[in-house]
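**User:** My hope is that you can spare some time for a protein that puzzles me. I have put the entry right below:
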Amino acid sequence: MRYLPHTNEEIEEMLAVVGKDSLEGLFESIPKECRFEGEIPVPAALTEWQLNDQMREMAASNAVGPDHTVLVGGGRYYHHVPETIRSLTSRSEFLTAYTPYQPEMAQGTLQGIFEYQTLTARLLGMDVANASLYDGGSALAEALLMGLRVVKKSRRVAVSSAVHPHYRAVARTYLQATGFELVELPCGPDGRTDFSSLQSMTELAAVAVQSPNFFGVIENLEAAGTAIHTAGALFVACFTEPLAFGLLKNPGQCGADIACGEGQSFGMAPSFGGASLGMFACREEFTRNMPGRLVGETVDLEGRRGFVLTLSTREQHIRREKATSNICSNQGICALTAAMYMASLGGSGIRELARLNYDKAEYLKAELLKAGASVVFQAPTFNEFVLRFDRDFAPIRQSLAEKKIIAGIDMVANYPDLAGCYLFCVTETVSREAMDMIVREVRK
């Protein structure tokens, strides 16, 4: 049954008010060459089982399916998702929960976000975490804008060229209409960011560094923080793989002022690009400049524990000129998923899984070096690494794809000077048998 909220009489009454004879008249301002003429070719209705068959056929046409082994990262990572997470997040009270404007009606949603904030702040070593943002790219852009708000009268921000290329593109898009300048810092031969140019920069508000960076290289965040603070700027620590902080020092331990990045690894499948989760945290002194929402704990008139939106500094709630962000919604179900994942694994579980990822990646790297590959960057890596081969790897990659193994990202599209180099990613989902098959193909 079609859902038509208005009767014909009501439609005629509304058209009379706006001076139109028909609904088509509402679209007269659209040029004829921009309008679609004729009937839209909508397929005939299908039965439920026919539709299921069609969806299966469409899924089978995907280049990469569930039966593939994927050694591709670059900001989206394949991890095992515990079945408890799938079961809990599919419950309607979580999946369909609405924005928690009314605390008396949304205590469960608010508590879930509060727990997420707590776990995120602990993971990143920061004082305060917000109720999440859209994704890692928008989180970085918001962090740079936040830096410009905090360091007043500054007109420039800097981003390492080893930050994910898509994140840098998002930041440029955010800033291009603002009058602020974004500059990129080069990388040294070890794949780490070169901060030597910072001292000559004026009006610098914030500097963003990703670790592990796009090459998988672990940046020296403590040294980065010292150089950035010496230049009078805020230190923004970015990430695409939060699991790394199970082994590595977190941003807070390294002196970061703001930590931001992607939380997809925590219980969410890559899903060909979505859904995502923008994790965002900062030092307490910068809380009121933080974008998005913040859920806090309180007590009601009877002394019972409760949760409320403590801070929501966006234009929908306060004067537009005072808003710190136009973020319209936190990624509620994604944030709850990440909270469930972090709580399920716990600190020791995250540490053990991070170690497993590190060990597997180091195993494949070592075996491929024995097979004739060479490491492009000598610095330590986590999960990902860039290799150069003594012969064209593209035919080998195609041969592996036919065996349902997707191995490596060609770096030339984003880094032309790395032509012939490939970025490999190894997580706990990759078996030793698959890694050994890659090595055998390289040795042929």
